[in-house]
Amino acid sequence: MRKLEPRLMALHIGSMPHTDPVHAVQRVLDAFPDIPAWPQLPRRSFRENMYVQFSEGFPGVAVEDEKIYVDRARDLTPELERLYTAYIEGDLEFAAVSREYALGFYQFIETVATLPQPPVAVKGQVTGPVSWGLTVTDRDGWSVLYDETLAEALTKHLGMKAAWQERELRKLSPNTIIFLDEPYMASFGSAYVALGREQARMLLEETLIAIQGVRGIHCCGNTDWSLLLETSVDILSLDAYGYAEALALYPEEVHAFLDRGGMIAWGIVPTSKDVMQETTASLVDRLHAAMNLLVRKGIPFEKVLSASLITPSCGTGTLSPDLAERVFTLTAEVSAEMRRRYGTE
Length: 345
Prior knowledge:
It is built from 12 helices and 9 strands.
């Protein structure tokens, strides 16, 4: 049974170029009133970088001089024991993200709590285990994911971060969405990533299992979509502006995903300079073309439509504020136009 009726509503991926959390949160609420997401603000502080933001409490982690690494040279046994004790006991406070690392999150909580009506749902995000584990290294440049002990600890660590976030967001709305952001899945299967299919699936699944509400995975490049569709994810979020054709290569898996209540977040608004060449009408046309790739593979249009959300193709943290504003405006307008056409307003 579907946990949320998407109804072509709009939401955003997370990161923003703003440095003022008050302004960032208000812009989110203006553009995405139905499903707002708390803003990650990497330009405000290095600690809001997506790999640093969820690092607090991980065994051996060090953040200094705008670098993050894991010090494997020291004895990590006491820190690993603390992590596993918190995990076994369900101590979510151990996994809390502090204001220093996520001021946008706290401003979001404080602002949304004052709204006269709660949103339909609220969204959070955490960096996924594949991307975090491959990006964060030890002092010698060896990825955390290639250390079996630390890789196992990582899924517990990030799962607790997601569960803590979900608990706090549920105070704002009974419907919560937590995304695992997995940009590195675009490199899965390449010669640069020594990661097997089953290992990747287990890493994702062992993190997703901590999320009780709606579970999402976002990948902003091409990947083996069948792998993601086989997990317990509820929302598959993709860059549909650039990679809609790739998803259509897996019609059986997409059909099975939709049959079990899965949803597709169509990242149809580009988070690049290309957004200046697009209009609401051109993006609606492009969205229909993307959906029709699945229809031509035998998936009914009504089934695709009823399972769809509208998003930017990725976060906007690397854009200029003006470009980010255009991305938000177009995403909201594409959603509104699609809902008008198909009676889901």
